[in-house]
Amino acid sequence: MRKYYVFSIRRELLVLYRDNPGNLYKLLESIYRMKEEEFTYGYNLFKQICISIDNLELSNRLYLTMHNDLVYTKIDNQHIINNLYKDEVSILTIKKSHLVLESNNSYSSFFSFLNNYQKNYFICDFESCDYFFLDDIELVVK
Question: What is the pLDDT of residues 24-49, one digit of tens each?
Fold first, then answer.
């Protein structure tokens, strides 16, 4: 199962890192791997890079968009896709600072919804050292 962290990046930083996403990944990874005594610095750095997510609005919009789909369920703040035909199980947890997406595939059906919702998402899989701007992956998959 892959674990993706989805961050909403500030627009001014999108311009800076669009052509060099590796540096943005390194910044976020350094925050992810910080020691406990560095949390205050990490929090301040994170707030300079990312913007808060309106988790209630995003959760409601996702539910309204997908609630009629048979492969979709919602439990508390977790949105789940269990699609046996595409062999996909994805769980999206919405938080104020970021989203956490766990999926058994490299591509999740949630990516399409998120890209339509907002264009400044940056996706990181810190365990696999994988990262990409969400709108870049959509161009490849379409």
Answer: 999 999 999 999 999 999 999 999 99
